[in-house]
Amino acid sequence: MDRRRRRPRTARTLLLSAILAATAGTAVAQTPSAEALRQRPPEDEVIYFLLPDRFANGDSANDSGGLTGDRLVTGYDPTDPGFYHGGDLRGLTERLDYIQGLGVTALWIAPVFANKPVQGPPGHESAAYHGYWITDFTRVDPHFGTNDDFRALVDAAHARGMKVYLDIVINHTADVIRYRECPANDCGYRWRGDYPYQRRGGLDGEAINAGFTGAAGSDFSTLTHPDYAYTPYVPAGEETLKAPGWLNDVSLYHNRGNSAWYSEARLDGDFAGLDDLFTEHPRVVQGFIDLHGDWIDRYGIDGYRIDTARHVNPEFWQAFVPAILERARARGIPNFHIFGETFDFQTGTAAMHTVVDGLPTVLDFAYQQTVEHLVTGASAPDRMGYLLMEDAVYAGGVETARRLPTFTGNHDMGRIGHLILKARPDISDAELLERTTLAYALVILGRGIPVIYYGDEQGFTGDGDDRRSRQDLFETRTASYADDRRIGQAAAPYDTDADMYRRLAGLTRVRAVDARLRHGRVAVRIADQTPGVLAVSRLDDAGETLVVFNTSTEARDVNVPVETGSTRWRALLGACPAREAAPGVLSVSVPALGYLVCVSEG
Q: What is the rounded CA–CA span in Å between residue 521 and residue 263?
């Protein structure tokens, strides 16, 4: 069934079209100076997250990464969702107009570093199209282009006033190290209590590494034998595969086998076979500070998203983060944005990583899950009310919470369209469009820094998580992508008239013209205990902006408590009365699965 057919415009689409016209030129219409770009705080950004391999192919000559052979050598097979499809940095640079048209101000790019092209047991191999199996941290993967291509991308983005955030991995490298005890590389985790650092191969083994404890601050000069749990080695021909060269030293890895995902194994275990770095080791700490500081020095990038941050010991971050921020300031980048991936849906756990680890911000998974549950009907608005009241627990309190990147879905958990379809498989096309739009409204008009996952603006849904949510934005040759259900209308790749593209662009423009939506204090006004209304005010000394969402399938009339000094109102989005119903009360009507933004100043 062709789900890209044209349909009549809905009232919401016409409203957002009017917003696009009304706000044109009032958002970031002029290219700012380099100084203005650097001074812009993280809260002012709208982030667009993409995988270069799946975004745009600007140079087909690099599709095979300069390698010769079949797909198990080159990693290239555009018909398989687990292999490279040909996207690259040149293609991304050529499509910056398309991205900026969404109101995006910052690019978050999945890792561009050189990867081991193919990994996995025989018959189950897949490729490193996603960028998370790094071997060389100093250069761009040849499938994506060259370091010069990356420089050209950063320069082109900066010339447009767009920032560039690079996805980095500290926890692990590609799977290179093997253990002699298990040639199939399926080694289970060996715990410190059973395999201490001071015995070879278990409690009854030969005494080694006298005095070494393995903790941060230990005397690592006493770690002379890395075979306390397993006997690690590097296969012939791969002894110098990693760069910088210090990464080839097996003693700089934990070497305890695959993670059991809890307790000490969460920090010290190999991530699904990937080589887990001994991040307590001072050589590793300084090595990564130097390495990622150099990318700032050379290219002037604006931030780092840190993959698998929760699997690294806190002491590493306590050293790494201040050093990187100082390196950025020395480069003239005072607002370098660092956010970690902690992949936990509890606010307390996420906040712990800011308090204990010293991470400046983290991706707000708790917000994502709350948005998902609100738009699928699994939870009521009071869940968001409670979540926002927990903002004070982050290091730095509510100000830090306003800098947390928020999102509807991603490359690991799947797209919001899929999550809605999973909860409501019989949903109509029209309702799917409305619920997806509401999800993004809760992110773009809500607390935090919104992240748009590439392809959502074209109505992509996908069939699940991981590779099933990493579709080609260009014309795909992957059958499982081509038959996906689409949200709204989209005529062709990169369609700027697609329903979701226009709706997201309208929402980002609203956010751009109202500073309180980016910086204002948060006050929850109404949070219903059944599917219904969530009303949140954003406040500063100049006035109040009220955002009202309706998660029910019926229109709602609601009396919203507001500041008593907020007397004259104007509509920024939707229908807002000119005056309050009574001192401290504004009466509004919110359409089913709709939202509105009302502004009172002075």
A: 37
